[in-house]
Design goal:
It contains 3 helices and 7 strands. Strand 6 and strand 7 form a beta hairpin. The strands form 2 sheets. Strands 1, 2, 3, 4 and 5 form a 5-stranded antiparallel β-sheet that branches. The chain has one domain: 7,8-Dihydro-6-hydroxymethylpterin-pyrophosphokinase HPPK (Alpha-Beta Plaits), CATH 3.30.70.560. It is 28% helix and 30% strand.
Length: 138
């Protein structure tokens, strides 16, 4: 399979936010058949969802991968688990949040995987991070 471009959003608002994002970048770079190609600037944002919580540290990365979207998403969830992420309450604080934002030109609306990510339309910080990666040639 020919490698495709995938964009993954990284976010953290608990504990060592910088450390969790660094760990995520390391783990993403070590995924099989995947190369980390570019990283956006770190950005602090207010939490979404209306719950009282600390601000998020966010970043977007560009990957080249031959992993199928479902396999890549499963790997993202496994990296989250490694940092102690628990999925209990929607919009709750988290050690690490990894979202598959885009996968090549794939458009999909399946249980558990919507591409492009529906949050892209409403998250200005994602769009600016993506634009930064595009300016880098990714």
């Amino acid at each position: 399979m020919t490698p495709v471009r995938a964009y993954v959003a990284l976010g953290s608002n608990l504990g060592d936010r910088h450390g969790y994002l660094a760990l995520a970048r390391e783990r993403l770079a070590s995924l099989p058949d995947t190369t980390l190609r570019a990283v956006s600037t770190l950005e602090e944002t207010v939490p979404l969802g209306g719950l009282e919580q600390p601000p998020y540290l966010n970043q977007m990365v560009a990957l080249e991968t031959t992993l199928e979207p479902e396999a890549l998403l499963a790997a993202l969830h496994q990296i989250e688990v490694e940092t102690g992420r628990e999925r209990r309450i929607r919009w709750a604080s988290r050690t690490l949040d990894l979202d598959l934002v885009q996968y090549a030109d794939v458009v999909r609306d399946a249980p558990g995987l919507v591409l492009p990510h529906p949050g892209l339309a409403e998250r200005d910080f994602w769009r600016s991070e993506l634009a930064e990666l595009h300016r880098m040639g990714w």
